[in-house]
Design a protein that fits this description.
The protein is an alpha+beta fold and 318 residues long. 21% of the residues lie in helices and 32% in strands. The protein contains 7 helices and 18 strands. It has a 9-stranded antiparallel beta sheet. It has a 6-stranded mixed beta sheet with strand order 12-11-10-13-14-15.
Amino acid sequence: MNHLNLILIISILLFASCKEITKDDIKGNWIVTPSGYDEPKFWEINFKEGKVELIDDNLFKEVGEYQVEDKRIRIQLDRDDLVIETKIQDLEVDTLLIFDSLEYHRNREITNSSFEEYDLIGIPTNKFLSSEKNYFSIIHFYKSEKDEIKIRLGDKTADFQDIPLFLSNRHSTPKVIVFIGERIMLKDLKKMYYSLASVGQSRICLGTKREGISDTHIFKDKIEIWWDDLENYLANSKIPQPPPPPNDFTSKKEYLKNGGKEVEILNKNDLRKIELLTETERYLVSISSDLSIEDYCKLEDMIIKKRKTNKEIVTEIE
């Protein structure tokens, strides 16, 4: 190779390295290739004309606006005025190196970015998903702009009757996390709980609020449903599933007949009734489905504390 050709190649490489990167250069869908060392905050990024979509490990979509300048990407999320900045360390035709050397590859197939975005219900709990060491089966539970209930099981849209099959197809029995959208009501959550109880799921996590760039507040809840109510639900479902073994009391009527005292929680002001529960009585806390989910979480926290001295407290959502 003569010196003239060598100089020409070097000049082309220098020109390419100095070329300003624009939105058009990175537009499209990108999927990370894990290195095995650093866990990526976002597994998929979709740069559109004016918006960017970020998909995290829990298949939750964040949306924002972005700018590209001086080989840096600046993302302004639509949520909480959060800003993400990263240097573009390298860009080739199908490879993008950002976030401290995380390697993203251009994906030309249909991807998870077609998910609907939605806002979580926004309840802070001071417990975070990042502190959990368990593997979770992921359910997204939210409402569309037309107020229609939407369910996504992992990356598949579904209905209530699909939940038992989704959970029973697992080789193991991982815990369940349900991400709760901002317009979901307690009466909607009750329907979700029936589907979960039909395959023996009784302890779950609710994802209630995003924290920082990629963490989530969680609320740990216990599902309590009467045996006869569950049987009626299963009898009317499209895909009946074998119910779990019954509890000590199979119905509300039987529980109250055997010395249980009913405490009705109809609104926020009724939460104070929990403080009056004694250590020696047996109680049924009957919760109105009109109660807000935020007040429901407060109520369940109060009941957890009471159960430290009185194990004979059960709940139901009416």
